[in-house]
Amino acid sequence: MSSKVPSKTLNNGVEMPQLGFGVWQVEDEEATRAVGTALEAGYRSIDTAAVYENEQGTGKALAASGIPRDELFVTTKLWNSASQTWQRDDVMREFDASLAKLGLDYVDLYLIHWPRAMRDDFLAIWRTFEEIASSGRAKAIGVSNFQPAHLRRLLDETSVVPAVNQIELHPQFQQSEPRAFHAEHGIATEAWSPLGQGKGLLEVPTIVAIAQKHDRTPAQVVLRWHVQLGNIVIPKSVTPSRIRENLDVFGFELDDEDLTAIAVLDEGRRLGPNPDTFDYN
Ligand code: NAD
Questions:
Q1: What is the per-residue pLDDT across 149-194, written as a single tens digit (0 to 9) for each?
Q2: What is the DSSP string of 189-249?
Q3: Which of 168, 121, 161, 159 minimizes the C-alpha distance to 14?
Q4: Residue owning the nearest CA to atom 13 of ligand 1
Q5: Strand 188-192 and strand 164-168: pairing?
Q6: Ligand 1: residues whose CB is within 6 Å?
Q7: Which atom of ligand 1 is found nearest the CA of 246?
Q8: d(Cα 119, Cα 8) in Å, to the nearest integer?
Q9: Measured in angstroms, how far is the CA atom of residue 233 from the centroid of ligand 1?
Q10: Closest CA to 178 of 229, 108, 124, 125
């Protein structure tokens, strides 16, 4: 099944599977089980983060799978917390800790988890990311939850264009402007909470009707919509049947009528925090 997942070529030539497996809100031990099930089902891309506190459990599953390292695509993220302004050494320490927990000597993608622009330190963090990338310990570097204005600063003041921006994106929050900005600058759009966290989106009558029409599930319709838009997508589930179901979206196609019907579901309403104001310690 893994061969059926197409890849996106990132702006530095690295190939990233268009569909991967997310593990937010999965405890460390459960992550070993869920990631194991996902790898068995055919997923090759796993999305974790330092703050999820399951890098160790994820790493265990990667090691136990016996899948060659170069067939896996592992993403983790810097949790640039604490009240200080982040310096090079802070970033290096956190990156080393993530690699150690994952049991890896490189990750495929390393992301700044949130811009925290009010701290005015993401440019400095990004310059350290550039150093990590040039050492080969991250095959690609990117950001998460960056607004176009934040990206604009990176483009103007640093040298590496982020390969990816991972943002909240689903049919009820379609993010047209950021997607257009990414397309213009060669940044891949990765959708977090692609299923709207399973909170109501999958019961929306339009989605249910399209699912019935194609003899698919609502989750498959939503994931297929992402794929056809060109998004990279990382649905999460700990239920083995759903883990398999969410990967099986490459054998059907939504038609123009379906896409038009989904386009009008956009409510412009976030499930998660607003990146312009979100801060954490
Ligand atoms: P999601 O949109 O993937 O929804 C997951 C939930 O949907 C599950 O917990 C389950 O309740 C339901 N679900 C999953 N498959 C289903 C199916 N086939 N049928 C019915 N219901 C189903 O939500 P998410 O976990 O928030 O997002 C996915 C991943 O995105 C995360 O695990 C994480 O890796 C990443 N993420 C990143 C950020 C960020 O700030 N960068 C924020 C949130 C999530």
A1: 999 999 999 999 999 999 999 999 999 999 999 999 999 999 999 9
A2: EEEESTTGGGSSGGG-HHHHHHHHHHT--HHHHHHHHHHHHT-EE----SSHHHHHHHH--
A3: 161
A4: 198
A5: parallel
A6: 22-24, 47, 113, 144-145, 166, 192-198, 202, 217, 219, 234-237, 242, 245-246, 272
A7: 18
A8: 33
A9: 10
A10: 229
Over range 41-68, report the average pLDDT. 98
Give the CA distances from residue 192 to residues 47, 71, 92, 108, in Å, rounded to whole numbers and listed in that order: 10, 23, 25, 18
Class of the CATH-defined domain 7-263: alpha beta
pTM for this one? 0.98
Six-digit token pair at 210?
């399209």
Q: What's the CA-to-centroid distance between 236 and ligand 1, angstroms? A: 4
Any catalytic annotation for residue 110? no
Tokens for 266, please give them: 């956009």
204, 196 in Cβ contact below 8 A?
no
Question: Distance of CA 99 to CAs 49, 106, 157, Å?
Answer: 11, 7, 28
